[in-house]
């Protein structure tokens, strides 16, 4: 009996060892070969992982499985608290999502716990909270490209000659159902993030890779449920998140039904047709008289088209109009340079061009702001002395106002024929002349302005649908309602946040200043003393008003105050007219020779360098941004006068043939070309900057070296685009304006 018992024990031990080597838990190779045949997934049943487990195990394996189960539980608890995509799969149930979405989310959950490669790619592609939240990191975007690889594996070839530790399915394995990249937008109320009060910096962007069957409304509800429960970062940073909306990053069909789309396409097609006609007219003038009438050498259809165009272009007014669109002539005009004449002010070309580039650099910082994940650091750079040229770039707009005021008055007073006509005309005739001048200015400005406005509407509608970012300045919504304000040049009378093309406020100011200045100049021709008193009174009133509005607003140079007082100060025409008045007064003194002076060559050089020093000091006057509102208001009002006077001396010195080495650089011939595209350059740069940043899939890090490189790239891109837009939508109408101003020849 003992021997028999010993044999039974030996047999039992041998069987247990044999069965212990047969482990029935799924391994990686099993997962790689697993198929999905359920109708919700790919056509038939969902296979539960529990059904696939083999329950015949030895005691040692039971202990191992218990350890694996404990690890799975720990992973599940950790993922539920830290991973947003996993948290959504956990809170999903049959009551808050549709059946297909529910089944697929649960399948993602099980596959993540079982470490299937495609599921871990979903987990990895979905965003989670990164570091840097305190200083503005609100972009938890994950990877849009990685989510796209769920259906479209990366086209990368890896050699089999090298041994790799990675799982085989990382590149090739696809998800068993369609996945989409979505972005969820939350507004947080955390006291643990620096609040800058600039635009909408408290919007968190969360990029998730989710089943296509889940609707955006369902995802929004799931996110609200998850944020209210399991998300621990919300508790630590006291976010109190509120889900705003979910974006699927797909362009809506209504995009092509927009009025701006039809107008822009129509405008572009009409311009191309006029350019074609101008080209045909140019060719026709070079052909023999009998050759081009018969359409010799052309195909039958082309010949008929040519005959129709030739018949239409026989009419001289049509020829003159079409010639305005001649591409070759406009190209020669835009690139032509010549020696500066004594009647010109060559420094204006360089001054405009340099200031236009300075404003572009500021616009790069401004319109990249909605993509920057270290916003506080970006503003900190703006307060450093080296970056004052950028952060104080809005002051450069005063350079353009000073130049406009100077040229408006200087050219008006030098036009002796027009002055005599105004003296001889009655009131009605002068009103007609005034309206004529206004019409020609409007004709030169509006076509390019209109095409840019339509393009901005389309671009912001496009990135509003397809960009991963929350777009704070929705010009597509604003322009569709308030476009007429821009066409009337009165948009700066309204709140800054209601502006269509908020950088166009300076154009509205300039048009308003043009009207007022022209009215005063007409008055000056008839009643000189009244016009002088009115101008001086306007200057004093403007200074007093600037002091008053600055004190009332507690104005300071800090970025939040400057942004918060944009409507009251920054775009207010009453405040911004000061440099225009200063430029007009200096032009009057120069044109009428009211101020004469004799300076030695050394004194002239000293004055040039002193004006440059004043210019630089005014640019750097915002280095200290917490001086208190009284000192700030004094600097704001009087500093702008000094700034405008320094610009005026540069203009006067160049007009009288004086200069130093750095002013000669601004008079270089290359700036003649750049000055001709400066209008398009100013209008286009915010559009191009916003489009390029809006199309990016990852947030931007504000770094000085990279910003320098980015600004150089944007300068080149905007410059090339400005040439195209100027030739197509600015020069033709400038030619047309000159054509209309020309009196017909009498025989």
TrEMBL record:
According to the record, the segments passing through the membrane are 259-278, 347-369, 389-413, 442-463, 503-524, 531-549, 569-591, 606-623, 629-652, 673-692, 704-729
- Residue intervals of the Nose resistant-to-fluoxetine protein N-terminal domain: 98-240
Leader sequence range is 1-24
EC? 2.3.1.-
Which InterPro entries would you find in this protein's record? Acyl_transf_3_dom (IPR002656), Nose-resist-to-fluoxetine_N (IPR006621), O2_lipid_transport_reg (IPR052728)
Q: What keywords is this UniProt entry annotated with?
A: Acyltransferase, Membrane, Signal, Transferase, Transmembrane, Transmembrane helix
Annotated GO molecular function terms are: acyltransferase activity, transferring groups other than amino-acyl groups
Output the PANTHER family linked to this UniProt entry: GH19286P-RELATED, O-ACYLTRANSFERASE
Q: What is this protein called?
A: Uncharacterized protein, isoform A
Q: Which organism is it from?
A: Drosophila mojavensis
């Amino acid at each position: 009996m003992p021997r028999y018992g010993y044999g039974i024990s030996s047999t039992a031990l041998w069987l247990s060892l044999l069965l212990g080597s047969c482990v029935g838990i799924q391994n990686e190779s099993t997962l790689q070969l697993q198929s999905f045949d359920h109708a919700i997934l790919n056509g038939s049943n969902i296979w539960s992982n529990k059904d696939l487990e083999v329950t015949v195990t030895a005691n040692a394996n039971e202990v191992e499985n218990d350890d694996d189960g404990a690890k799975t539980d720990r992973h599940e608890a950790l993922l539920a608290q830290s991973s947003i995509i996993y948290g959504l799969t956990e809170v999903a149930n049959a009551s808050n999502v549709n059946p297909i979405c529910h089944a697929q989310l649960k399948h993602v959950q099980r596959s993540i716990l079982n470490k299937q490669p495609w599921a871990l790619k979903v987990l990895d592609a979905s965003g989670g909270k990164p570091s840097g939240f305190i200083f503005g990191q609100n972009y938890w975007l994950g990877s849009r490209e990685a989510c796209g690889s769920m259906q479209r594996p990366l086209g990368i070839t890896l050699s089999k000659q090298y041994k790799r530790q990675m799982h085989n399915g990382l590149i090739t394995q696809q998800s068993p159902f369609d996945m989409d990249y979505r972005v969820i937008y939350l507004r947080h109320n955390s006291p643990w993030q620096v609040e800058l009060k600039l635009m909408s910096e408290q919007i968190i962007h969360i990029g998730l890779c989710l089943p296509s069957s889940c609707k955006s409304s369902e995802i929004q509800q799931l996110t609200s449920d998850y944020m209210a429960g399991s998300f621990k970062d919300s508790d630590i940073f006291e976010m109190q998140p509120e889900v705003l909306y979910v974006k699927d990053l797909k362009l809506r069909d209504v995009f092509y039904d927009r009025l701006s789309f039809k107008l822009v396409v129509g405008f572009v097609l009409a311009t191309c047709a006029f350019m074609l006609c101008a080209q045909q007219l140019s060719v026709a003038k070079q052909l023999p008289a009998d050759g081009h009438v018969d359409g010799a050498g052309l195909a039958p259809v082309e010949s008929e088209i040519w005959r129709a165009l030739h018949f239409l272009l026989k009419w001289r007014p049509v020829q003159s109009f079409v010639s305005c669109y001649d591409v070759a002539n406009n190209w020669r005009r835009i690139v032509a340079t010549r020696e500066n004449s004594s009647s010109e002010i060559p420094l204006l070309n360089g001054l405009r061009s340099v200031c236009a580039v300075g404003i572009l650099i500021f616009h790069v910082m401004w319109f990249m702001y909605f993509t920057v994940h270290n916003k506080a650091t970006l503003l900190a750079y703006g307060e450093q002395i080296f970056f004052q040229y950028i952060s104080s770039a809005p002051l450069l707009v005063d350079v353009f106002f000073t130049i406009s005021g100077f040229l408006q008055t200087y050219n008006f007073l030098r036009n002796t024929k027009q002055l005599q006509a105004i003296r001889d005309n009655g009131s009605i005739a002068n009103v007609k002349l005034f309206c004529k001048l206004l019409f020609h200015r409007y004709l030169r400005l509006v076509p390019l302005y209109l095409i840019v406005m339509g393009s901005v509407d389309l671009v912001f509608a496009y990135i509003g649908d397809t960009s991963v970012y929350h777009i704070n300045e929705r010009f597509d919504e604003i322009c569709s309602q308030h476009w007429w304000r821009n066409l009337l040049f009165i948009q700066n009378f309204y709140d800054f946040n209601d502006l269509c093309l908020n950088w166009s406020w300076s154009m509205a100011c300039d048009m308003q200043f043009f009207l007022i200045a022209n009215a005063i100049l007409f008055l000056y021709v008839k009643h000189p003393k009244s016009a002088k008193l009115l101008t001086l009174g306007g200057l004093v009133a403007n200074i007093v008003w600037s002091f008053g509005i600055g004190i009332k607003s507690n104005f300071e140079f800090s970025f939040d105050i400057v942004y918060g007082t944009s409507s009251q100060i920054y775009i207010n025409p009453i405040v911004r007219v000061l440099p225009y008045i200063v430029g007009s007064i200096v032009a009057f003194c120069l044109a009428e020779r009211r101020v004469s002076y004799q300076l030695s060559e050394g004194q002239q050089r000293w004055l040039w360098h002193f004006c440059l020093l004043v210019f630089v000091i005014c640019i750097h006057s915002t280095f200290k941004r917490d001086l208190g509102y009284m000192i700030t208001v004094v600097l704001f009002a009087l500093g702008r006068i000094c700034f405008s006077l320094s610009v005026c001396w540069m203009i006067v010195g160049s007009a009288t043939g004086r200069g130093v080495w750095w002013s000669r650089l601004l008079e270089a011939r290359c700036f003649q070309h750049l000055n001709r595209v400066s209008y398009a350059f100013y209008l286009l740069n915010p559009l191009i900057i916003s489009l390029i940043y809006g199309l990016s899939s990852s947030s931007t890090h504000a770094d000085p070296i990279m910003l320098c490189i980015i600004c150089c790239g944007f300068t080149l891109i905007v410059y090339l685009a400005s040439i195209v837009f100027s030739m197509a939508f600015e020069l033709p109408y400038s030619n047309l304006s000159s054509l209309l101003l020309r009196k017909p020849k009498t025989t």
